[in-house]
Design goal:
The structure holds two protein chains of two kinds. By secondary structure, chain A is α/β, with parallel strands linked by helices. Chain A has two domains: about 100 residues, Urease, subunit C, domain 1, CATH 2.30.40; about 300 residues, Alpha-Beta Barrel (TIM Barrel), CATH 3.20.20. In chain A, about 30% of the residues lie in helices and about 20% in strands. Chain A contains 14 helices and 21 strands. In chain A, the strands form five sheets. In chain A, strands 3-2-7-19-20-21 form a six-stranded mixed sheet. In chain A, strands 11-12-13-16-17-18 form a six-stranded parallel sheet. In chain A, strand 12, helix 5 and strand 13 form a beta-alpha-beta unit. Chain A starts with a strand and ends with a strand. Chain B is an alpha/beta fold. Chain B is about 35% helix and about 10% strand. Chain B contains twelve helices and nine strands. In chain B, helix 4 packs across helix 5, helix 6 crosses helix 7 and helix 6 packs across helix 12. Chain B is globular, with a radius of gyration of 21 Å. Classes of the chains: A alpha/beta, B alpha/beta. Chains A and B meet through helix 6, helix 10 and helix 12 of A and helix 5 and helix 7 of B.
Chain lengths: ~425, ~350
């Protein structure tokens, strides 16, 4: 594989604390040199590296999304690992963690390995998250040791909660022993029967059953209590797609007393409120649902003050005919890989003044550290050659019809974003080149 | 809301920006036919006045002349839920105007075989339907049908969302009672504005949570100046229901609500929609049944309404339902007139891409 020499750009590598003009040399899938502008010219020339002019661009670690649904195996009409990771590359992501709600559910080493096989033709590294319980039914826990050996980076029954106290306790204990985080989809499904949006006056007016915020915060609080009761410092609870002020407050308190609790927030939850449902737009239907503005503001505050550990998309592709249904019947979820960086820059950077380095950390080094993805989300020597180049000021318009995903279900169709991705390099291979 | 794909949310510097609900209609939804009646919130007061005028005009017209107005025009009734009143009323209204009607119900059609609402709508359009009257168990379904067919859609009740023709016929019933059967020429019942119902308090009582009639009335009547009191126990009336719009308050004590009201609308407990809610019917009847003693003690002059079907002995007793103050049968009569007017509006209106598409107020 040819070496790649990225020069003239502004390097932001939060893990190393670098935020300066720097050049970068990649070879054999690794970062082999980082130095001040010009210092690597001779070396690059000597090894006939491919020159990539990054003038005017930010050079950052390839982004890491710890929450995606790639729909394979089982629902390749929505997405495949190949198409989903192409969308990832287009959005600047080089590592994606695939949730286990495939068909069949990924509760085995066999499926975990299958998802990572070269035959899947992935354009970004896929890290499977295995089911926490067999069939994700919340009953019998899977074999965490074997799953970890097969490459699983966490366990979760995402899409559903592990509802029973005893089952969740067992998950946390077993995962602690093998050093895996338990990722919880926090939803007390006893409070959300038949519900399809956030609970409150708008749901009442639209005649839709609502999911109360307490259905999320209640489970988060319960899980924190369970974690505390274990008293095993290796136990790690990660809250998926946190969407309410109450749940964030619970995480905040847990962190304050030193518990290993982390959380992620999805871009749509800090960019939109339930008002986006408008006239029953199913592209504004997801679980957890879009909340009210108080929750949205609380999430932004949590992102700004560092309480939120990662931005994760919950990329959830669905076919057109599935979303073109009655609101209550349409499936939950939207695509997110191609709009995550743009939304983060637009809302967090432009509207709320979050420094670029902090945004990049939330999208790379922090999620990589959270799931212990070695050599990902950073550009220090020896790291994987996962790089994204983007022009922070250059605006672009997202057209769902031109998405690399197989699906089109985005509420952000037609939106304009700052931060056009110029190039994505995954393990030393250029997987997206959109420079003009 | 913009109709074309030009949306670009304004950048808001504040944390609590209000720009977060902005979006465009997706490309597959070019417009909602302006003859549609999906929600009472889409009607301007001018629209309401026009509908009331049309209702009067059509009702008083020579039957044979009326039957030539929309002769052989095709109207489809698409019913995913059972219905007596609304279906018959719409069907008779369409036939009175001379239109051909066809009834498609969920059982005994391809819907049973899994055909989507969109495809059913497109099929009806291909068969020549010029307007579809839809009753559906899912809130918002008429929007989907309107967006996917481009036809005028009349919402005949969607889930627990709205029932716009019911609210209009209720309004006509109230106006007729308030102004008398033969109102002065200077003040016909069709003459309405935002002060028309000033000083009138309407209590809507019972299973508010599951009532599309309650929502449509609570959204429409305050715009004419009425005060709406929602009354019912917590499980059937969450406290945030008052946030539905201006002019709406909650009063859990039925007798206090009655004492303030000139109109009282009783609702049925929708057992089929309770979905796990536990309700003590004896206790409910004790607290919320409209019976003669309660009525005479607290609101002896009030107009009593009920959208039907009534469950006599539960929310209402026969003395009240059949009493002099009951407007229940009148409501049904007004229904046909209102539905003729809505159908005429639907069949007259031209599809357009103008801003007024959907007729948002």
């Amino acid at each position: 594989m040819k070496s790649i020499f990225i020069h003239g750009g502004h390097l932001i590598d939060p893990a190393a604390g670098v935020d300066a003009k720097c050049d970068l040399l990649l070879r054999d899938g690794r970062v082999v040199a980082v130095d001040l502008p010009g210092k690597l010219n001779a070396l690059a020339k000597k090894e006939k590296a491919l020159n990539v002019d990054a003038s005017g661009m930010v050079v950052a670690p390839g982004l890491v999304d710890i929450h995606v649904h790639l729909r394979e195996p089982g629902q390749s009409y929505k997405e495949t690992i190949a198409s989903g990771t192409l969308a990832a590359a287009a959005g600047g992501f080089t590592s994606v963690c695939a949730m286990p709600n495939t068909i069949p559910v990924n509760d085995s080493a066999e499926i975990t390995r299958w998802m990572q096989a070269p035959e899947r033709n992935a354009s970004a590294r896929v890290f499977p998250i295995a089911a926490a319980t067999y069939g994700s039914t919340g009953e019998i826990i899977t074999d965490y040791q074997t799953l970890k050996a097969a490459g699983a980076v966490a366990v979760s029954d995402d899409g559903k909660p592990v509802l029973r106290d005893d089952a969740m306790l067992e998950c946390l204990k077993a995962a602690a022993q093998v050093g895996l985080p338990v990722i919880q989809h926090a939803e007390d499904t006893r409070l959300t029967q038949g519900a399809s949006m956030n609970s409150g006056p708008l749901a009442f007016r639209l005649g839709l059953r609502g999911m109360p915020a307490e259905a999320e915060s209640g489970i988060v609080q319960r899980d924190i209590e369970l974690l505390k009761s274990i008293g095993d410092s290796r136990a790690h609870l990660h809250v998926a797609h946190l969407s309410t002020a109450g749940a964030l407050e619970a995480v905040r308190r847990a962190k304050r007393v030193g518990l290993h609790v982390t959380c992620e927030v999805a871009p749509h939850h800090f960019a939109l409120t339930e008002q986006a449902i408008g006239d029953y737009d199913t592209h504004a239907k997801m679980n957890p649902p879009l909340r009210n503005d108080e929750d949205r503001v609380a999430l932004i505050e949590g992102l700004l003050d560092g309480m939120v550990d990662a931005i994760a998309t919950d990329h959830a592709p669905h076919a057109i005919h599935e979303k073109e249904q009655e609101f209550e019947r349409a499936p939950n979820g939207i695509t997110g890989l191609e709009t995550a960086l743009g939304l983060s820059l637009r809302v967090l950077h432009e509207q709320h003044g979050m420094p670029l380095a902090q945004i990049i950390a939330l999208l790379s080094s922090r999620p990589a550290a959270l799931l212990r993805l070695e050599g990902r989300g950073q550009l220090s020597l020896g790291s994987h050659a996962d790089v994204v180049l983007f022009e922070p000021k250059k605006t672009w318009r997202f057209h769902a019809a031109q998405s690399k995903s197989k699906s089109r279900n985005s509420p952000f169709d037609g939106w304009t974003f700052p931060g056009r991705v110029g190039m994505t390099i995954s393990e030393g291979k250029i997987v997206c080149d959109a420079r003009q | 809301m913009g109709l074309l794909a030009t949306n670009n949310m304004p950048v808001d510097k504040k944390v609590n920006g209000k720009n977060t609900g902005e979006k465009k209609l997706s490309p597959r939804h070019p417009f909602i036919h302006p003859g549609s009646a999906l929600s009472v919130t889409h009607f301007t007061l001018e629209d309401v006045r026009h509908i009331l005028e049309q209702a009067t005009k059509l009702e008083s017209m020579n039957i044979e002349r009326r039957a030539r107005l929309y002769a052989k025009r095709r109207v489809a009734l698409l019913f995913y839920e059972s219905s007596t009143r609304t279906r018959t009323s719409f069907e008779l209204a369409a036939k009175s105007l001379g239109a051909d009607t066809v009834l498609v119900s969920a059982l005994s059609s391809s819907i049973e075989k899994g055909e989507s609402l969109k495809d059913t709508g497109i099929t009806l359009r291909a068969l020549g339907a010029e307007c579809i009257i839809l009753r559906h168990p899912n809130s918002g379904a008429p929007y989907l049908l309107a967006q996917t067919t481009g036809l005028p859609i009349l919402n005949a009740g969607d889930g627990i969302h709205e029932h716009p023709s019911q609210a209009l016929l209720d309004l006509r019933t109230i106006l007729t009672r308030l102004r008398g059967k033969r109102p002065p020429k200077s003040n016909p019942i069709e003459k309405i504005n935002e002060r028309t119902l000033r000083g009138v308090t309407v209590a809507i009582v019972g299973d508010i949570l599951h009532s599309r009639v309650a929502r449509s009335n609570a959204l429409l009547l305050p715009r004419l100046g009425a005060q709406v009191i929602l009354c019912g126990p917590e499980p059937l009336l969450p406290s945030y229901a008052a946030g539905i719009g201006p002019g709406v308050e909650i009063e859990r004590d039925f007798e206090r609500a009655l004492a303030k009201s000139q109109v009282v609308m009783m609702l049925r407990i929708q057992k089929e929609r309770l979905a796990g809610l536990q309700l003590d019917l004896d206790d409910y009847t004790q607290r919320y049944q409209l019976h003669l003693d309660r009525f005479l003690a607290h609101a002896p002059d009030a107009l009593v309404m009920h959208p039907g079907p009534m469950i006599r002995g539960l929310e209402i007793t026969s003395e009240i339902a059949d009493g002099a103050n009951s407007a229940v049968a009148e409501q049904v009569r007004h229904g046909t007139a209102i539905r003729m007017a809505l159908l005429a509006r639907a069949l007259d209106a031209k599809p357009s891409r103008s801003k007024s598409a959907g007729g948002r107020a």
